[in-house]
Write a structure and sequence with these properties.
2 copies of one chain form a homodimer. By secondary structure, chain A is α/β, with parallel strands linked by helices. Helices cover 45% and strands 19% of the residues of chain A. Chain A has 12 helices and 13 strands. The interface between A and B is large, with 36 and 37 residues.
Chain lengths: 361, 361
């Protein structure tokens, strides 16, 4: 087991990564203010892992409420959030109770936002069961839901009390989701950690074969990179935007194709290629470097081109994105491999040309 | 104009109290990150004060979105909250925009929760137009909505960038609401500020006659008392519970009668009498002191007895209250006038007897 301290002032917490953590109630019990928890999960994860997490807690005398939601990004909305509130209220969960998210990013976002807003905030613990959730949502405290007019438009920054990332839960993860999760792992290398990128290039086969040691290392190092950035910028005003490499283009792909059609990591992979290509057009990345990015993503089995929505549609979809500031399109680009940079001087013609170049079918 | 600094670490802000502040855009403009604000108000307040606040902002080049909601506690719910989200999204309010609450406590709670959760948090400014909102919601950062299963069950702690309390807005306040607001003013004296309580007893007629100087002083001193408590306990784990004097009984009255039937301050007044009576039964308040509490509330024109719901109904309604911890009923009592105390050792028989004694018709 590896542990990582996320230093966020009074809200510091520990991420624990390793095989078999799900049953380790000893890691959770000392954090409970009251022996009352609500485990929020979904219909896919529940039959696989809910009993494994709940049984040792119950054996220790904890009152465990199970809230099992439908599975899918399309349920990350106000109606599903309200199902959690209803369950908490109907079962008289108190302010000193703890909400545990058991599942992927959608469950983490929903359960975290419920925890942030139930009785103005109760304790929250994350048990992410997808690679994406383990390397992304584990750090940063982003929680929230989608709104018909935009993704993640409603939410809160809310830190968990701890995160348990059990690599054994990845054994049941669909291949496509594993690869999508690796898109975010690669991102950390690209924006700020060249040695890690080189390690990924050298250990990609082990990661794809789900070797526990390689996964544990990749998760811990991804979280460490994210934690360093987030500690500098907890509410996303500055350097934290680096984490959005490929995400502005990626969100346009997800929205344009209808949420759930492309996985988030797949859209981010194609978006990262676009960001690399735009960086090249703006003179901060060589053609060789662009090829290196494309090659790694391709080897990972990820898309390296966006869907042909048309440049104008992309631009329209990118305009409502949260990365818009004062009417200017801020984008995360690469200033060499391993060095992300936030630029607000992007030229609309370059962006358009990039989209056209990267979205051939 | 009086100003009061609320010291909450990185989230410190200033409360400005006085006559005619509504038109003082010079107090707001330096706080805007972007010249884009959304003023959230209701159909009662809008015709009286919306133009007064919006016009000078527009004259200064600020883009002002007006979100006018129906008036009433029954609209403090998810559906109305969603109307705010819709308006913000349809008008492309950015993350650097500012939400301004113009109205009473319901508007402050709704707009504040929308600000806390729109794009995971945007700037928030409060312009409270009722006495209750000026002395209560101005400090503490409580925002939220009601849920069919409980009042204020969904919400967040979220601090404003500043508060403008314009005493001129109280000139149009219905008499009944003025008196209800004074219940909270009296509360501050009772729980921790005996000299202020004596000042209120001596200046009650001026307050009821809406003299600007008396109101300004009472608002500023109420906020100062609340700010001191909140600074000690921002997320309501300990001493902040003192602010709930009369509120556990009061919430039971509001819920039992149907929200909106009794004003919050009226329920708090009756609840304060019950808390005083229970304190007497538990030996921490004299009969003379109980009479002093009752006399002041009665002179203010407030109810000094609860509605006859029956003791068992009261107890049932009090059980889901947020003041319940670990199954025990924690109540704020008085240990002498000017000295509130949180007690978890309340005896159910005493509570029952108190309800029966204080709720005769």
């Amino acid at each position: 087991m590896r542990t990582l301290d996320v230093a966020l002032g009074e809200r510091a917490y520990t991420i624990q990564v390793g095989a078999g953590l799900l049953g380790r109630s000893d890691l959770l019990l000392p954090l409970l203010k009251l022996p009352q928890v609500a485990i929020v999960t979904n219909t896919t994860v529940a039959p696989l892992y809910l009993a494994k997490l709940a049984a040792p807690l119950r054996a220790a005398g904890v009152q465990v409420l199970e809230v099992v939601l439908p599975d899918g990004e399309q349920y990350k909305n106000a109606a599903t959030l309200n199902r959690i509130y209803d369950a908490l209220l109907e079962n008289r969960c108190e302010r000193a109770a703890t909400v545990i998210a058991l599942g992927g990013g959608v469950i983490g976002d929903l359960a975290g936002f419920a925890a942030a807003t139930y009785q103005r905030g109760v304790s929250f613990i994350q048990v992410p069961t997808t690679l994406l959730a383990q390397v992304d949502s584990s750090v940063g405290g982003k929680t929230g839901i989608n709104h018909p007019l935009g993704k993640n438009m409603i939410g809160a920054f809310y830190q968990p009390r701890t995160v348990l990332a059990d690599t054994e839960t990845l054994n049941t993860l669909p291949e496509r989701e594993l690869r999508a999760g690796l898109a975010e792992v690669i991102k950390y290398g690209l924006i700020r950690d060249l040695p890690f990128l080189e390690w990924i290039e050298g250990h990609l086969d082990e990661l794809l074969a789900r070797k526990a040691d390689a996964l544990t290392y990749a998760i811990e190092r991804s979280c460490a990179n994210k934690a360093e950035i987030v500690a500098l910028d907890e509410t996303e005003c500055g350097v934290r935007a680096l984490l959005n490499l490929g995400h502005t283009f990626g969100h346009a792909i997800e929205a344009g194709m209808g949420y759930g059609s492309w996985l988030h990591g797949e859209a981010v992979a194609a978006g990262t290629v676009m960001a690399a290509e735009l960086s090249r057009r703006m003179g901060s990345l060589t053609e060789v470097d662009v090829k290196r990015v494309v090659d790694l993503l391709r080897r990972t089995g990820l898309p390296v081109a966006g869907p042909p929505l048309g440049a104008e549609r992309y631009l329209a979809l990118m305009a409502l994105d949260k990365k818009v500031s004062a009417g200017k399109l801020r984008l995360v680009l690469l200033d060499g491999i391993g060095r992300g940079v936030i630029r607000a001087d992007t030229n609309l013609n370059d962006v358009r040309a990039t989209i056209e170049a990267c979205c051939h079918v």
